[in-house]
Amino acid sequence: GTGQGTCITKLMETELIAAAAEPSIGGIGARLLFKDKRVFFIGVPTYGKYLWWGQPLEPQALDVGWDGFNTTVFDDEDNTSLNALDDNIYIGSQKGFIRLRGKSPDSWVLDQTLATTGPLSDKTSSVTPFGLIYPRENGLWLFNGFTSVLFFEKGKNLLGNVNWAQYARAFSLWDGRYYRLYYPSGTATENDRELVIDLIGGIENARG
To answer: What is the mean pLDDT of each run of 10 residues along the chain (208 residues)?
Structure first.
């Protein structure tokens, strides 16, 4: 079923003729976010629990803080996503999200949210007008800045045959209307499936 605040007009899952290539931002594969004139990033190899940030308008002047800051909250899990919702920054892990409030290091405050299910990968997490959408093993989840809800359960035509062993290949896109998820299915080692959701009204079509 759908969660409150979301309206689905079109659900379509089809086989891709050619494998979808994941977007590349180059560098070391870290997740970058620009907010309040600063660059923030996570995902630096061997520094999975760190949040890094640049000086205002000086992205090359980097600081790092909270070495393992989420350890007690997420059982020593690495960060998996970094997004801005409303006026705050949210650092995700598989077990939830932490909120970063404030405009500068002197005023920053970290809050634990009520979310208990977070994203597996930043590449499959997309910010939409309804919140952050991301897939998990049991379906699609929505994080609204406070809590996370399962708004579409896994089914035959919805994430029914994901190759989770190759999930690192998957990625999602939000184009202003459609949430698109590309992922490998069955024994595929490259993305061979596309899930498309139109977040405007009710379900129109589902096939796959």
So the answer is: 38 45 44 81 73 72 50 63 89 89 83 90 89 91 94 75 90 88 91 85 39
Q: Token pair for residue 97? A: 């999200």
* Residue 72 DSSP SS3: helix
Q: Residue 164 has what DSSP assignment? A: G
Helix (H) or strand (E) holding 71: helix 71-74
Give the global pTM: 0.76
The residue with tokens 């919702």 is 85
Q: What pLDDT, on the 0 to 100 scale, is given for residue 66?
A: 44
Q: How many CB atoms lie within 10 A of CB 135?
A: 25
Pairwise CA distance, residues 97 & 156, whole Å: 29
Query: The sheet that has 51-55: what strands, in order across it?
Result: 31-35, 38-42, 51-55, 58-65
CA distance 189 to 124: 17
Picking from 31, 43, 14, the residue whose alpha carbon sits closest to that of residue 182 is 14
How many angstroms separate the Cα of 10 from the Cα of each of 72, 89, 157? 40, 30, 13
Q: Residue 194 in 3-state DSSP?
A: strand
